[in-house]
């Protein structure tokens, strides 16, 4: 659900699928309908789990389409709430959001318009999507986030429960790695092939193959001691959950798929409560917002007429 709350912070330029000649209703939400063309417009460009022409790929694609349809139903429920709450996004808010997108991506006006065209958008169609995202944020902020608060007692209890983790990104870890390089924008077939290759090596290691020997054969090696905060973001939480001797992977990052062995780790001195109190409060707040959002959406579903026809 965090995706809905954080949508504005990661507004991108998603690809749009070509219009479909034939269409059908895949869901009815109240008095609104969701068409199969809308579903496939969102689902097909984001499918990354295999070849949809194979039986297994078809099964995974259908599961993916159902997840995307569930998300579209939630968006429709939120849009209906926006009408009830008389919430909308102004032209000025849309303009400022576009300026933020251009700034975050280092684009001037001409580059921005070219990026839109390359992804199948017109400026007006992108503004429409952006306006919908802004409205979703406003509804969730008002209906959910504004009703969540975290007390000092909750922060103290959370600190006591998680005191060993509070050394945070300054924790020192000694890692060994095997890396299967793959470009971030590589075709899905290449990504899947590299993932399978990495998974096969994981099986070899768990069957008793010696890590150093496999690493030497595949260009991996000893990374030495690192602060956890120096690792790519995608690896930090994985490493935080590892015990000495654990092997994890494949873990995807911008560089490819990683297989990691934790050799040793050293916890830094635990930071005092007063130093981390507001950081912990923010963490607890976001956790509680996620739970509250799920409960709110569940209640919206319960009160609404939803007919899924997929």
């Amino acid at each position: 659900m965090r995706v809905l709350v954080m949508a504005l912070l990661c507004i991108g330029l998603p690809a749009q699928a070509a219009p479909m000649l034939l269409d059908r209703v895949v869901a009815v939400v109240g008095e609104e309908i969701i068409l199969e063309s809308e579903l496939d417009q969102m689902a097909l460009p984001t499918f990354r789990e295999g070849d949809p022409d194979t039986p297994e790929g078809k099964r995974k694609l259908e599961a993916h389409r159902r997840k995307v349809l569930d998300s579209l139903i939630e968006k429709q429920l939120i849009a209906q709430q926006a009408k009830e709450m008389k919430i909308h996004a102004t032209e000025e808010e849309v303009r400022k959001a576009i300026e933020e997108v251009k700034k975050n991506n280092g684009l001037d006006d001409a580059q921005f318009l070219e990026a839109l065209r390359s992804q199948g958008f017109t400026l007006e169609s992108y503004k429409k999507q952006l306006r919908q995202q802004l409205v979703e944020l406003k509804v969730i902020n008002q209906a959910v986030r504004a009703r969540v608060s975290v007390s000092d007692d909750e922060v103290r209890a959370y600190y006591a429960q998680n005191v060993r983790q509070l050394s945070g990104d300054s924790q020192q870890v000694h890692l060994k790695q095997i890396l299967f390089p793959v470009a971030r924008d590589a075709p899905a077939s290449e990504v899947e092939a590299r993932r399978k290759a990495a998974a096969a090596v994981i099986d070899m290691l768990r069957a008793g193959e010696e890590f150093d020997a496999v690493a030497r054969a595949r260009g991996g090696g000893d990374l030495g001691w690192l602060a956890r905060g120096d690792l790519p973001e995608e690896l930090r939480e994985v490493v935080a959950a590892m015990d000495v001797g654990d092997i994890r992977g494949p873990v995807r990052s911008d560089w490819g798929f990683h297989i990691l062995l934790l050799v040793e780790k050293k916890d830094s001195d635990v930071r005092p409560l007063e130093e981390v109190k507001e950081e912990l409060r923010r963490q607890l707040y976001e956790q509680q917002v996620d739970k509250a959002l799920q409960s709110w959406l569940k209640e919206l579903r319960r009160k609404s007429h939803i007919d899924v026809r997929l």
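Residues 1-18 have pLDDT under 50 and may be disordered. The radius of gyration is 23 Å.
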